[in-house]
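Hi V.,

Quick status before I head out on leave. The structure for the redesign project is tokenized and pasted below; the design run finished overnight.
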């Protein structure tokens, strides 16, 4: 079986995201790293989406849902620097 270099990049970005979330408590950085990981499809890129096994589709969809949840947390968190910056920028401060 030929191992793609994308698998290693994908796993690396996932591990960076877990590190950011677990040890540095930075949900924004974790969402960024995990979102970038989605760009490096760990499965066979030559295989169309409709022909992929259901478990591969499930892995990628659950991964996308986790990234969306982290982004929602970052945006909705009242203590978020992103939210403060957006509000201050909107008010012209």
């Amino acid at each position: 079986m030929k191992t793609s270099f994308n698998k290693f990049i994908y796993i690396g970005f996932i591990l960076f995201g877990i590190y950011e979330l677990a040890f540095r408590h930075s949900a924004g950085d974790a969402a960024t790293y995990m979102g970038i990981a989605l760009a490096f499809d760990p499965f066979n890129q030559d295989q169309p989406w409709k022909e992929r096994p259901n478990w591969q589709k499930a892995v990628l969809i659950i991964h996308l849902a986790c990234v969306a949840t982290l982004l929602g947390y970052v945006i909705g968190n009242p203590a978020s620097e992103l939210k403060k910056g957006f509000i201050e920028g909107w008010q012209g401060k």
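Above is the designed sequence. The longest helix spans residues 54-76.

G. will cover questions while I'm gone.

Best,
W.
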